[in-house]
Amino acid sequence: MMNAELIGQSLNTRALGKKIYSFETLDSTNTFARKLFDEDSPHGTLVVAEEQTAGRGRQGRRWQAQKGKNLLFSVVLRTPFIQERARILPFVGALAAADAVEQLTHCSVECKWPNDLLIDKRKFAGMLIEAVTQNDVVTSVIMGVGINVNQREFPDEIKSKATSLAEHEENDIDRIQLLCRIMEELEQRLEQLRQFSPQVLLDDWKRRTTMFGSRITLTEQAGQSSGKAIDLATNGALIIENETGIRREIFAGDVTLG
Ligand code: BTN
After folding, report:
1. Substitution candidate for ligand 1 out of 21, 25, 30 with most atoms within 8 A of CB
2. Where do the H-state alpha helices sit in the chain?
3. Residue 191 belongs to what domain range?
């Protein structure tokens, strides 16, 4: 069982996770984190649940995960540079989680735009990043992370596309150790974002993807289209090229390879 005290004891960070809320069951860690009053959620506040009854994914989807086997958490981010550089945060989160997983397992992790993590082309982690505003000013950004860790069975509708870390390891993974490693990596990556050009992070992310040069199908609110993934723009947008060679930048959407 993951509880706030055990997590706090293993966490080796300067600012992140100094305040931790842990729950056995919650509607959604992102929803809870959004509702915290400012004074209850200093920068780095961590919300963890063993189970979510209304876990949310990107594009209005649900995030389903078996109770007690996975990582379901949200981190409240509140420093001024985070608002300016909000578009880079998906890459920050993806890199922190990918690096932590590779340090603690034998898995080799690939990134898919904007913030999916894959092993052998199957997704094992996703992120939902939401801005909280007051009078049109962003007061914080909630980074919600879902990682399939020790779950070994998946519902039929996602079976062919989903995986977990345990499916690639002999033994179950220590979830507290993994969570703490991710928080430590996240702290370092945020420091990198504060000090350097976002390009440094985007370049690290690009080294972790095989999608560029490949044909993709893009699903946006406006519908589906196909093309070739070309590169990341400096603002984190995905540059795609259609059959007639016209390029455009995508800020929100879902990519299927092939
Ligand atoms: C996606 O790939 O669509 C994003 C999935 C994000 C899921 C996590 S689980 C913890 C946090 N709380 C939520 O309701 N969603 C995020």
Report:
1. 30
2. 4-10, 29-35, 80-84, 89-104, 175-195, 198-206
3. 4-206
